[in-house]
Amino acid sequence: MAGLGDREKTGDRDKTQDDAAPAEDGFGLSRDQIEAVRAALDDEEAARGAETARALVLRLHYADQADLVQSLPAEDRRALIGALKGAFDPEILPELDDYVRDEVIETLGYQDLAQALAELDSDDALYVVAQLDEAEQAAVLERLPVATRALIEQGLSLPEYSAGRLMQRELVAVPAYWSVGETLDYLRSAPRLPEDFHEIYVVDPRHRPVGQLRLSTLLRSQRSIRLRDIMDAEMPPLSTTADQGEVARLFRDRNLMSAPVIDVSGRLVGRITVDDVLDVIEEEAEDDMLRLAGVAEVDLYRAVVDTVKARASWLGVNLITAILASLVIGLFEATLQSIVALAVLMPIVASMGGNAGTQALTVAVRSLATKELTPSNAWRIIGKEFLVGILNGVVFAVLIGAIAWIWFDRPEIGLIIAAAMVINLAVAGLSGIVIPLALERMRIDPAIASAVFLTTITDVVGFFAFLGLASLFLMP
Amino acid sequence: MAGLGDREKTGDRDKTQDDAAPAEDGFGLSRDQIEAVRAALDDEEAARGAETARALVLRLHYADQADLVQSLPAEDRRALIGALKGAFDPEILPELDDYVRDEVIETLGYQDLAQALAELDSDDALYVVAQLDEAEQAAVLERLPVATRALIEQGLSLPEYSAGRLMQRELVAVPAYWSVGETLDYLRSAPRLPEDFHEIYVVDPRHRPVGQLRLSTLLRSQRSIRLRDIMDAEMPPLSTTADQGEVARLFRDRNLMSAPVIDVSGRLVGRITVDDVLDVIEEEAEDDMLRLAGVAEVDLYRAVVDTVKARASWLGVNLITAILASLVIGLFEATLQSIVALAVLMPIVASMGGNAGTQALTVAVRSLATKELTPSNAWRIIGKEFLVGILNGVVFAVLIGAIAWIWFDRPEIGLIIAAAMVINLAVAGLSGIVIPLALERMRIDPAIASAVFLTTITDVVGFFAFLGLASLFLMP
């Protein structure tokens, strides 16, 4: 594997990591590093062990420290957080999974947590506080410096998953009548500017954004030019209440590097940069996948009992679906008793319908999420999926028909399973696209509810078509 | 819905779009806009219609133009590309789905395509050419300017999905011994610099990157300081052959804005910026989801026959799985004939196993992709999933046991289905985590193959446990 390779050839910048071998791809955490820390924490002489572990961890990038904290068993994790006391890097907190973060915060205590939050960027601190429950939030907030506390409380008042929760408040804004020279002088000498900024925002006298300007453009323009003559006025200002998914899609579609955020009165209150959007994009795609499978989130670190509870609700719904299918089968007890071959073959039609439907469904759910599937092309895609279902139905009808005929040496059973296959795969294709479209229309998340409806339909239709046709044509 | 709202309050910057209502969320394409273009293209007087359509389209952002081209039926699409002749925005090309792009390129012709490519950034041009088949590539390449052609051929020689395919070659590199003042003067006056850059790379005499520097840092430093004293030396240089997924993970974990790319000799050859990574991140998560469902990609715009073929292979594999399950059922024909209630109930155990297994499987596939699930915590998670399976097995065993007892008024059937449920859900939990781990170990993509193995196991075990226990205890 090439990995991120070729690192060894680029000099000796990473001497510090030499004694613990890095992961095989050259970045991130290696198993050896994790084992070294665990070994240190298991040291009989606790103080010495803690000191060694601390030294091993502190040389890592904060993202790797977070990975390490995450991969340790709960006991070792507590021991490590204890060992890091005073040197705990606040940047670790936003990187952790919710369950692990709760544990870490418990070990840290509110006082240390408040101190860590005060050191973070406004958006990261807000994110961490937002994940706490109300009592914890109150306990932390009262320990924060007044200014930080006010910013976080303001952020918490905005809707979850809104642009306001994502934005950084640190930005550079200058008036439109300034010249390039004035602006450059300001940037050079102003005492308090964000540590890192790639663009400056141009505002009108009411602090409403009227344009933005890249530093590279500013640098390469003549000093006498007015900002309003070179600024980019086409940036989309986002409202603090805009949905994060919409924001992410906009960044992706327009290839934006950053966008200003305005409050209800149109005033510039923050900026969102593309790196803030990475997590949103990944989570949106991931959430669809998890919801389709009936899990709410990646619950790797969640306790067993909580996981059982979280997954049981989905299994409960599926039990009802399965019982419904059994009720349909129950209608044909007499037929099954007289031709037991039907019982042997009947799961095939239902299972193929479920699979074909899931294919159409997954494409539909994903296309709805990315807004590729819209009211303007819905009918065309519905027609297409129906046709795809019929055609694949015919293909597999011929196959399974021949197999069933040979297996039970009864051509009529082959014909009946073939007919049922075409019916069920056509219905599956149609349901796979119509169900998510209908749910979306009713403002229900298609990723959550579609799969249940789909399997109910493909099971019921699958068993009913097969056993019904058999009763009609094979029973005296 | 708040959408990206509040736009109307922020001034009158978008007058140009006023006559065709924008989409409900304030950005992107509205249905009215699409309809207006379609109406124009259907105009009886073709020349006038083309002129109107062209005017309507050209005022849109290129991302919206791409969306529009995509949502049109094939005929209208060809008509529109014809109408845009000469004013076709090259930026549209990388935004299109593969199927649509192929059509557009066919309508454009190689000469116009070559011209469009020459106007694109190197990474975008490479991406478009890489999607063509070999004959098309040759036809386009020979029509390109020599320099562009060389760059693209060099890019094509790199592995697909590598950092080299993702990087832009346009960048700013300066020697480490320069002072801030020299650098600023160079940036201000150098005739050919990239249109947009957020950081400059500091290189040694052999053009190997030794650090990077944000423009904001440069601007705020004293002119006499040497770059080597203020540059950030901790940036990770990526190899051109590094896997894009790894690159994306690194950007996400380390919250990077950009990273330099080096060739085998360690020379700086390009840069990857975080916006290039957005698509990779989304596609990685999306691909897992699609593969689990047995579709290779979002095939919304793919022709019916191609879609049928692409999906049939997965359905074929599933047919084999289903027949395997039927063979297991076939072992118990005698039992089914004497107790038909078993035929009615048997799909329940298999179906619940499939669902519980899919929950564990989806979490595992996703965690493997994000490297949260690693050899160091695998055993712990395996134990957890097994336990979760047993516990949910017990919960649903009690439920279905009671239901079956009441339904058929035979307590022994209730007991048998309950026992089968515990067995199958425990096996499902275990398989859901072990299968993807084993596949990953064998370097087979767990997202592609896991689901088939899982349903085979949960079906076979589900039917075998239920019917086997019934034969053992209920048959004379």
From TrEMBL, chains A, B:
Q: Region (Disordered) spans which residues?
A: 1-31
InterPro entries assigned to the protein according to its UniProt record, in alphabetical order: CBS_dom, CBS_dom_sf, Mg_transptr_MgtE_intracell_dom, MgtE_N_sf, MgtE_transporter, SLC41_membr_dom, SLC41_membr_dom_sf
Q: Key word Lyase present in the record?
A: no
What GO CC annotations are associated with the protein? plasma membrane
**How does this protein sit in the membrane?**
Multi-pass membrane protein
The organism's place on the tree of life at top rank: Bacteria
Q: Where in the cell is it found?
A: Cell membrane; Membrane
Q: Name one GO molecular function term.
A: metal ion binding
Q: Which family does it belong to?
A: Belongs to the SLC41A transporter family.
Function text: Acts as a magnesium transporter.
Q: What is this protein called?
A: Magnesium transporter MgtE
- Give the species: Rhodospirillum rubrum (strain ATCC 11170 / ATH 1.1.1 / DSM 467 / LMG 4362 / NCIMB 8255 / S1)
